[in-house]
Amino acid sequence: MSRILFLLVPGVHLLDLAGPAQVFSTAADLGLGQTLTYVAEQPVVPTAQGVPLQADTVWPELCPDDLLLVPGWRSSGLSSSDQWLAPDTLVRLSEHHAAGGTVASVCAGADALGRAGLLDGRRCTTHHDLQDELAARYPRATVVRDVLYTLDDRVVTSAGIASGIDLALHLVAAEHGPAVAAQIAREMVVYARRNGHERQESAMLRHRSHLDDTVHRAQDAIDARFDSRLPLGGLAASVGVSERTLTRLFTRATGLTPLRYQQTLRLERAEHLIAHGATVEHAARTVGFEDPRMLRRLRARPTLPTPATG
């Protein structure tokens, strides 16, 4: 994602826009190269909360690496906003996707994707108050309820309001890795959460759903060097607490001891290597185990339950 282009519609909800924008701007602050651009069909866009926004009316040239995102807006129903996006704007949405780009929506923004023909034959979601209407307007779409977001062939939709943050964090994790997404979530003081019914694909995100800064700093250190020897004393000293305090805080926040967390990261990476053809012995050495038998024992353990959030 080299450019994040937000398409603003009159009555746009500030959090629908600001949540993803904060995620991507924080990614840019970390040096990941994102550029944020805002376009609309008029230079001044009224928002649902009363703060007017300025936007460009001339679209930049987009490439397949760019993300085109439509935040949601306030309306009495989806049909009431039919006049807000001109046909050529909807064509831009469909053409970007046809060229290999990713399109996304927050809340009512899914209707813009539907009008552009991008929901037909795909899974999608929107705010729970709008799901029935979305399903009725686009009967060829599969509206998924009770999820934070959906992804289907470079068409990404989220449930609305704060769920746009979850969508953006997922996109960052997919492109730059879960450790970066976790770092951004920590900067924003939000949970690095995923859809509850889906498999938590990364331990770095799965065990970051807490707000303990000491534990986050310890996790930062482990994430960066999980394949190295990390004595508990050195780890505790690096975050300014005793070994006993770190173990207590870490276990309370993540459900794991620091050592078990490190082993979980090693095991996850080793499983990835093995799935791509590496031998157990090679995978064990790569992730930092001196003896492959340790990796074999960890692989034989039952899967750890996902920690509760909220």
Automatic annotation (TrEMBL):
InterPro entries: Class_I_gatase-like (IPR029062), DJ-1/PfpI (IPR002818), Homeodomain-like_sf (IPR009057), HTH_AraC (IPR018060), INH-QAR (IPR052158). It comes from Streptacidiphilus cavernicola. Transmembrane segments: none annotated. The keyword S-adenosyl-L-methionine does not apply. This is GlxA family transcriptional regulator. The keyword Transcription applies. Keywords: Transcription, Transcription regulation. It holds the Pfam family DJ-1_PfpI. Residues 216-310 form the HTH araC/xylS-type domain.
